[in-house]
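User: My advisor asked me to double-check a structure prediction for DUF4969 domain-containing protein before group meeting. I don't want to rely on an old file, so could you generate it fresh from this sequence?
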Amino acid sequence: MKKILALMGVLLVFSFGLVACGNEQAKGDTQAEKTPKVEEKKDIELTIDQSYIQSDDNGKVVIKGKVDPKASLSSEGKQIAVDSNGSFTYELSFKDDSESEIVATLRAIKEGYNDKDYDVTVYNNSKSYKEKVAKEEAAQKKEAEKIAKENALAAEKAAKEEAARKAEEDRIAQKEAAAEKEKERLGAEGESALIKAEAYGTTMNMSKAGIYDQLTSEYGEKFSKEAAQYAVDNIDIDYNANALAKAKDYQDMMSMAPEAIRDQLTSEYGEKFTQAEADYAIQHLND
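Assistant: Sure, here is a fresh prediction for DUF4969 domain-containing protein from the sequence you gave:
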């Protein structure tokens, strides 16, 4: 009796298990029926003969290719005709010569498919554009040559100025060295002559030749010619300004005419200024 009861218990548990499994299977089938299967969209077939094209002499170009015959093809909102085999040609032109290239985007659309874009780069090879480029290049070349010439002239000028500056520095250095040597040789006489020359030049507005004569004159300072020459060579006097001062004196105090003043300034019996110094004085007499 106990064996029979145990066997009945096992059968009962097994029955419950079968029912539970059946319910789970039914639930899974119901969920599968509720979730629709989403199909992945395909790409539209679109091919272009050339991705990079040059225009003709008139700036026109023809783009050729093939697309799914059932697709709609357009570029920049303009519809492109497609034949029954899907072949097409699309013409476009450059609007003006300001553009060197344009990118034409062709778009294919078909229901149930992914949209397809294809970029074609078109280069402007028109006659007018090439002429424009040639003119611009010629102008740029001319400008570059002009700049190069200006730079060369500037460099040459700078080199000359540098050479002149160095030459002047060398001249001054040599002059100073010679003056120092002469000063040592002349001693006190040279120093005294220098002081006198400075006084004649600054207080009496004398010319270089006039100062020299005054320094060496037996009726003047009676310095040696070497000391006098050393003195006039080493004083810093603006002889143009001295000539002008003398000219104004002749004009104001003696009412002399400009040409008479010029003669007096340059005369060996007068002021003994150089011709250039006298010309400067007359030119600025009424400033």
